[in-house]
Amino acid sequence: MEALQVISSATQIISSMVGAVSALDQASRNLDEDPKRIRNLEEFVYDLENLTRGIRQKHVYKLHNPQLDHQIQSLNALIEQLRPNIAKARRIVSRSRIKNLAKVVWSSVAGDPLSKLINTIRDDLNWWLESQRLTQHVQKVIESTAQDVPVRLKIKVEQGWPISSKCHFVRNLLEQEDSHRVILIVGLSGIGKSCLARQVASNPPTKFVGGAVELGFGQWCSRNACNGNKDEYQRRLAKKISNFLVQIGFWKKIRDENTGDLDYVCCILQEALYGKSIVILLDDVWEQDIVERFAKLYDNDCRYLVTTRNEAVCEITEAEKVELSKDDIREISMEILQYHSLLGMEELPGIAETLLERCGHHPLTVAVMGKALRKEVRAEKWEKAITNLSKFATCAPGPVSYVNEKESESTLTIFGSFEFSLEAMPGDSRRLFIALASLSWAEPVPEACLEAVWSVLGEESLFPLIVCKLVEGSLLIKTDMDPLYLVHDMVSLYLASKADDSTEILLNEYSLDETAFICPWLLIFGKENVKKIAEERMEFLFNVLEGKQVVATLEEVIHALMASKSMSELEFSRERFSRILGPRIADLISTDSLSLVAVTTEAITNIFSKSDYCNYFPSLETTGAIKKLTTTLEFCEENPMIQIHILIVLAKLAEFGSPGTVDKVLESIPFNQIAGLLSSSAEKWHESMFTVLNSLTKAGKSNAVERMFASGIEKTLIKLLENGSEVLQHHAIVTLKGFYEVAHTPENDFLQPSNLNVLPWQVRLRLETFVLSDRTVPHFPKPLCFEDLVYKVLDGNKKQVLQAMQDLIPIIEKSADSRVREMILHSPLVDRLSELLQSRHSEHDSIRSESAFLLMKLAFSGGEPCIKKFLDHDIVPELVKMMQCNVEELQDSAYTALHQMLFGNGGILVLDKIFKTGFVDRMVQSVDSKSIKTREVNVHCILDLVELGNRSCLEQMLSLQVVEKLVKLEKITGGSGETIVGFLKGMDKCKHLSMMERRVIKQQVVRKIRASLKGHKLETPILASVDACMSEGLKGASSRYRK
Fold first, then answer.
1. 728 with 683, same domain?
2. 315 and 333 part of one domain
3. Do 909 and 932 share a structural domain?
4. What Pfam families does this protein map onto (predicted)?
5. Which residues contact 961 (CB under 8 A, 6 or more apart)?
6. Whether 318 and 170 share a structural domain
């Protein structure tokens, strides 16, 4: 964007210079005019220098962008060429008149030097302008070509896996026209089936124009994992295929309403692969019908690489069967050992071949042993490793459950390598690894959970070193972008054999304090049987523990929830915790422990949903909780965080309590204390305080608002409007608007027209109705006059329609009055404006723009009744369509109208319409538009939706890959992350998210940002902006508890 601004400004100046040079050429023999023309050229060059200098200063931190830097350098070069030539021209015309007369005579014989200079200057200027036009033209041609080229999907190759002869064999099968569509790669677990398939698919034959894509299944997607439940198995398989449809770009998002219907999803899969030519890697397949569902798809040129260790899958007859045997891996096992041991061929001890034989050349076993012997060159150490491997393989526990019995011997060898690797590690690493057997490894586990497990076992500060040893030993895999861990399926199988030991260690061997600490984590991230044990243990602990131990448990509940990887995981865990905590809140709040009351209120604010407040808060109304909480509030004046959690609970008590409870809360709450927590020096508490104010306003209405006015809260909020951050201004606007909607604006000097003039236009637009209007209509418009204007809009010519629209504005601005509003809504005006919006003739653009403006005014003044009328006439969809057109004036008008409708009364109806009709999909796709204006208005509208939406809206936008598209936009424009930060700030402004939900979904967004930016030149500056935004949003977060 900055480069475009540079070229636009410079082009205007240089185009003017070309005109000045032409004028100089025409006047080159007018000796009186020459100096004036030269002076004009010098002024143009001076303007160019100022422009270049100003751009450099303004964008000093963006000069890493090559396009921006090239534009500035080209301007500097042009200035350097112009300056000496203009100076020469100045010297020529500054000579005396006599010499100039002589020059005229001489020029007729030898040629005019001034004319030569003029031609040189003109050539330089035209060259620069032409080069810019050529650059833009070439860019458009390349972009047009790129637009028509289909995307070629890619699979990431496995690091440390050499190319074997088997890779070439499988690739040749893919190239053959007469081979089967399905290629089964079978072999022992950990032998490298997936690595081999990825190696082939990372560079598929050129005939597969669509590239290659991987779809992993695993044991999770098997009948055995579903305990024979057919419906659950089909639901899981349908979800996997739905993810695949999104992965190949056929679906923009996962459609929750259809993910459980396997037959429907398979029909869509047939449609999605029609005419496609893709290599599809189906990895770790456990069920035969999975392969059959893909193999029976028709009218495509796709081939399927299938990796499996299930003999039933291998029985598919219509498939090429490629078995990965010991002989196949023998040729690459030495390279694998070198890669993981960090030793060259000449550095390996001679006994290395013996180690490979003992490992059976099994790649996973070789990798584990290689890492255990990393940089070890002493032969005796390798001999001991071989001896120990044999001993551990003999003693290793057999697999708990396994599909192929013939693999048991290999499995014991692999398990033996795990035992050897653990034996070579410090004892702390061994203990942590065994303890991790209680966790479910079906999905990646967050680092915070591993850290919590270790905190029960040892010193917290040692965790990075301990877990690093497990990663180095190939027992844990750490993802590149996120602090998440996963394990190889053979490691998972080994851990399953240690599950009972792990549960015994974590839940029985340590004190009640440690048990209380770890139970919340096991309830979220444990295996299914462990979750049940943890839930029962937590219920028991709440009944027998002392206050200090309950405090630790509740704190860990909060921290465990914050580690949730997704909103669905958070919601599922939150419900389980609320069932445990809900029935006990009255007893917990009634205790004499200040710390227990404080952490209980914090847990309530983070865990409870609206339904929880309705179900469990009635018990607080009859137990003296209000008095207890207000008393506690008096003893914690030095701890704002505790004050805030107590205030939130009191406010929610009023919001969900009886009228008598509302009165008690309003009488008990110290409103002066609330005003203090809203001061500019207490910014990190502001978000929570706005929650308190909104709940109290909703519950106490005018009574609550009058108390707030009396305590100076309104004055404090207006100060935040004047000097607060963007997010604080938003919350202050929403809160003040709520005040003025339920109570008359008090007669004070805090909010006056003079104050509005110094506020941003968005603030003025949303508050001026409460200041500039007395909400009455002193001069009711004559019906005849209004009818005449409507008649002109209906049947007048273009000029009459535009004039009538202008005359209607004063009437529409009075539609806050019910009489005026009803008159408008019962007239054909809205219907006519809807028709005018739909006109597609360019000569009607001004009428369409004016129609959008009138609708904006009507929405602003008339509120929800007008919005409902708009929805009946499909005006919202028309405005969304207008934002996609190529006329900038119409796009701006449409967005401005839609913005006002969203933020006005009844905006929630507009929001629902956009999401239910799928128009949010169109907005998200428009982020990729070539038109700068189209991208701009749609991005603005998306940020509005983030600000106003709820959890469901945000999840829907994330499923549409809106974050990835915004990152792509930043890459294209060479931005600094402003749009992405705006997305995060929109979530900070959203009042429909709890603090816990906001934190989890922001972490999810940041993970997407990091993944999309990985390796890009803008990764560092954009992530710096994102990290700064995240740090600002976490100012009020509580510190982590540790024993």
1. yes
2. no
3. no
4. NB-ARC
5. 252, 253, 924
6. yes
- Chain Cα centroid distance, residue 393: 46
Q: Which residues constitute the domain of residue 820?
A: 782-917
Structure tokens at 928: 């990729």
Residue 477: helix, strand or coil by DSSP?
A: strand
477-478/182-186 β-pairing: unpaired
Looking at the structure of the chain, the number of domains it has is 6
Q: Where are the alpha helices (DSSP H) in 639-782?
A: 640-656, 659-668, 671-677, 686-710, 713-723, 726-742, 753-756, 761-771
Does the pTM surpass 0.85? The reply is no
For 936-969, letters b (16+ CB in 10 Å) and e give bbbbbbbbbbbbbbebebbbbbbbbbbbebbbeb
Judgement on whether residues 860 and 976 belong to the same structural domain of the protein: no
Give phi and psi for 485, each to the nearest 5: -125, 145
- What DSSP letter does each residue of 406-467 carry, written as one string? GGHHHHHHHHHHHHHHHHTS-HHHHHHHHHGGGB--SS-EEHHHHHHHHHHHS-GGGHHHHH
Per-residue confidence at 108, pLDDT binned at 50, 70, 90?
very low
Chain centroid, CA 248 distance in Å: 20
What are the pLDDT digits (tens) for 245-304? 888 878 766 655 455 678 888 888 888 888 889 999 998 888 888 888 898 888 888 999
Q: How many CB atoms lie within 10 A of CB 102?
A: 12
Place of tokens 């009396």: 710
Q: What share of the chain is helix, strand, coil (3-state, %, to 5)?
A: 70, 5, 25
Q: Look at residue 124 and tell me if it is in a domain.
A: yes
The β-bridge relationship of strands 279-285 and 212-216 is parallel
Residue 1025 to residue 625: CA distance in whole angstroms: 44
Are 789 and 765 contained in the same domain? no
282 forms bridges with which residues in the sheet?
A: 215, 306
Question: Quick check: is 596 in a domain?
Answer: no
pLDDT tens profile 374-387: 888 888 888 887 77
- Asked if 295 and 384 sit in the same domain, the reply is no
